[in-house]
Amino acid sequence: MLKTIFEIMNSAAKNGMQKIPFDQELILNQIEALVYVADLDSYRILYLNKRAIEVYGDVIGKFCWEKLQEGQTGSCKFCNKEYLLEHKDTKKLISDKLNPINNKWYEVHEKLIDWPGTGLAKLQIAYDISHRKEDEINLKTLLKQQELFSNIALTFNQQKSFAHKVNEVLKIVGKFVKTDGVSLFENFAKNSKTKLIYEWCNTDVSPKIDKIPDFSFDKHHPLYKKIIKDKIININNLKESKYANSLNVFIKFDVKSILLIPIFLHKKHIGFITFEECKKQRVWNENEIKLLQTLGNIISTAFERKANEEKRLRSEQKLKIANATKDRFLSIITKDLLTPFSDIKSLSSLLYDSYDRWNDEKRKLFINSILNSSSQGYKLLDNLMVWSDIQSGKISFKPESIDVKSVISQTIERLKGRADRKEIKISGIPDKQIFVFADYHMLNTIFHNLINNAIKFTKFGGSVSIKLKLLKKLLEVRVCDTGVGIKKEDLNKLFRIDVDQTTFGPPEEKGTGLGLMICKEFVKKNGGDISLKSDSKEGSEFKFTIPLSKWYTYISE
Fold first, then answer.
1. Domains of the chain: which residue ranges?
2. What pTM, to 2 d.p., does this model score?
3. pLDDT of the residue at 181
């Protein structure tokens, strides 16, 4: 077809015809291409076929740069005149060009020909290749998107924190779509509120993270209903939008245009991702929107992976603790519990064999040792049974109004003999009654274990004090001693069954730590907290809280 066009034009030029013959004109008008001829020196249009006239109008005699282009005030800088002159006898020039008049792509063939009465002229034949060009653009876009998704996948597979990976993905996507900012919001409070958790923005854009407040949304609000229904909201001019008041928080950060996409996980709405323009208004095209909606799905999948990973780690941690607990229980049973019974057996056997040869004083000494060993074994066995009941959920919980003064007094009275043997002074019985709401057995066990431990780890001649402080709805109790204390690096090992605690304290006062763990469980069961402050040279302070009785709180107020 190109050859036919060139032959027609050359034939007309050789015969000196000012007008192309009708039959040849008919052929040019049937060609699926724009054909035009322009004078090489004056740039005036000499010929247009029918299809060219349909695009440009009847502009023969006008300047090509004026009628075939837009915004030109003289010959085009991209005109190929010089190149064509240099190669006029050898080849034609072929290039792809976007037509500014109808916004279509054309494959343009250009060649110099002789034109009657003017001399050299430029012949241009343009074939519509918009579909091909669209396919090429789509292919390039697809390849770029594949590269984008590949980079996102690589980022999420990095051995780094989830926050680092999400921030890096937001940066990758933000730069890819050339936007000013990308923000990720997560819903909370039963999906009635949302908060900004991750953000990327250009260096010249003010970040919102830690500055933007959490905000509530009404599920019946027209904006929310539109977002959930359309799965997107695309606002070109945010300030003039009917949703400006609802999205005013973005306007405060100079956001001019916003694309907001809701994120779903198993059909449950869990958050939003927004793409923001701060320097200019922007309308996102259909391909960009599809891409960014796909990103929303990727983010959703990432959050699901994070949740599954956290669940797996929690399960592994629980299993680890369970195994350690089992091992610790076996250790207590086979070693700690065996020791007192072994002592009882040895001491009673020795007493039996030597009973007639020993005097009363020595016999009483051995009987006392047997009593201490049996008490130690009984207490350990009792703690094991209590701990087992706690773990299996068998222990009863019956809270009632209890006088703390009475509990402290009775506990000190029971432990007075042990304290007196070490000449340890115990103080802190309150002057007046203070009523708390707790399980009596549990509260009694808490005080007994803490005061008993304080006596156990306090040296001869030391002191133990109980200090009470009324809070708004709680009673704060501190059990302080002047004992050996605990090293700072060992503090986080207390209250844990999976850690061997026989290394704490002086050799003669080693324990299993079960008593403290029972205290922690009982305090927690009664709605309080327990903590420890200790120094290896200044003793220890165990602090716990317990709810005040409601009627006592009322009287106190």
1. 2-128, 136-309, 337-394, 396-556
2. 0.53
3. 94
